[in-house]
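This section describes the prediction task in plain terms. A model, or a person checking by hand, is given the sequence of a single protein chain and must write out its three-dimensional structure as a string of tokens. No templates, partner chains or ligands are provided. The sample shown here is typical of the held-out split.
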Amino acid sequence: MTHHMRLVNFAYEAIKNKTKDIEVRLNDEKRQLIKVGDIIEFEHLDTKEIMKVEVTNLYHFKTFEELFSFFPNNRLGLAKDDTYKTMDNFYTKEEQEKYGALGIEIKEI
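The expected answer:
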């Protein structure tokens, strides 16, 4: 199965440069459909460039705080001092409590 997701510049470039191998998302209904072996087409938010990756593993967490504690920031494509609170820019507290967090391990194909 192929999934489509959009990415901001820094996240897209980090995957493209192989410095990020875990994509972090809310584990909502859309993400619950993702399985190991699936393909994700990442679309650069500004340039509309598409990059395809394969899902190699899925990590489920109750909170983004747990996810960020499990992985080093460099695997998430984040600066050393970024914290799980950066996810508040993307998802409401209510969404986070309802769905939890998903770490999607990927490799470019």
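For orientation: The mean pLDDT is 92.
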